[in-house]
Amino acid sequence: MGTLKAANDLLILRQFEEALDLCKNELKGLPDDKRNGTLAESLSVVAVQAFAELNRWQEVLPFVQDVFGGLEKIPPQVLQLCIALHSKMQDFAPITMVTEAWLAAPQNQEAGGLTRVAEAYILLVLLPHSKFDDIRALVEGHPIITEDRRKAFLQLVEAEERSLEEREGQTSSQGADSVNKQQGAMVTVMSWIKYNMLPTRPARPVTIAVLLGVIGVVLTLTLKRRKAFLQLLW
Question: Which range is the signal sequence, renumbered to this chain (predicted)?
Answer without folding.
Answer: none
